[in-house]
Amino acid sequence: MSFSVEMAQGIRGAGPGGLACGGEILRVPATLHDGWTMDLRALALGLLFAAMWSSAFTSARIIVTEAPPILSLALRFAISGALGIAIAWAAGQRMALTRGQWRAVVVFGICQNALYLGLNFVAMQWIEASLAAIIASCLPLLVALANWVLFSERTRVLGVAGLLAGTFGVMLIMGTRLSGGADPLGILLCLIAVAALTAATLSVRGASGGGNLLMVVGLQMVVGAVTLLPIGLAVETWDVTWTPRLIAALAYTTLVPGLAATWIWFLLVARIGATPAATFHFLNPFFGVVIAWALLGEQLGPLDVAGVVVVTLGILAVQLSRLRSRQPVPPPPASAASAVAAPRTGG
């Protein structure tokens, strides 16, 4: 599961004071939504989310070496979707979604879950998990670039510098890997995948409000499963030996990046706001490479390390430029703040 500022804006639909989760309301100080304050708990949540998100590529690499990628991913989405919908229902959320939310369910279910993750799973049959993670980490750069070019979003000098640095870093890494024998088709599939997710993110700008966020995520996973299943049945054969390694990787991918990371992301956005939370994406290239190196023994050359550093700094610059473009909002008077009650999400 990947997240962007545009996707996270749906948190605001829970009301000015918080997000209802598991029957409780997460209270968020008004100054944190648009300000720059970040406490230790928010820092811990952000680091945990980045590590979970980045680890998905390593576990996916393990899965596709032992099982057909498309059918495996369809199975993962079926399980994650069912669990997500069950948890959302228990938290009081229902399928009474807005038109924009239903559009987000279909668009992200197809473009993110089926295309983006499906193409990455297929590609990782031939390329390393670290390379796939680095390419996928370019999402914030591509979204910022598209917002700048297509929607005339104001971009600061720091943001432009970040875009240029991130592009250079990715080109450096891909050039190094191609010269080292990386499969061009695998790289191409990863590039198409992140482009599809960028298009999906832009197509639902502002359409994710209205609450029921866990229900939306669960339904998106079901759409991904329904989309991938017939494709997998048509082009793959389910011939799998259930080894402990495969079972562990599939369970981890389903529960940790699939559900736990989603939950932590919502907690983080509810605590500090969408734009500050998105700054943690700058850690994804680092965590993706380190986890693949530690668990899969993937090799890293000096140019790979240099490229990762440049991409990381580029993403950080882009996110900080967006953060600084938002002026902090003064807190409301104490009497007014105490009178605001956040509504529950769902029915």
Automatic annotation (TrEMBL):
Region labeled Disordered — which residues?
325-347
Q: Does the keyword Transmembrane helix apply?
A: yes
Occurrences of domain EamA (ranges) = 42-174, 185-318
Is Transmembrane helix one of the keywords? yes
Q: How does it sit in the membrane?
A: Multi-pass membrane protein
Q: Where is the composition biased (Low complexity)?
A: 335-347
* Chief location: membrane
Q: Which domain of life is it from?
A: Bacteria
Q: Which residues cross the membrane?
A: 42-64, 70-92, 104-123, 129-150, 157-179, 185-204, 213-235, 247-270, 277-296, 302-320
InterPro entries (UniProt xref): AA-Vitamin_Transporters (IPR050638), EamA_dom (IPR000620), EmrE-like (IPR037185)
Cellular component GO terms, alphabetically? membrane
Keywords, A to Z, come to: Membrane, Transmembrane, Transmembrane helix
State where the protein is found: Membrane
Per the record, the similarity remark reads:
Belongs to the EamA transporter family.
Q: What is this protein called?
A: Putative inner membrane transporter yiJE
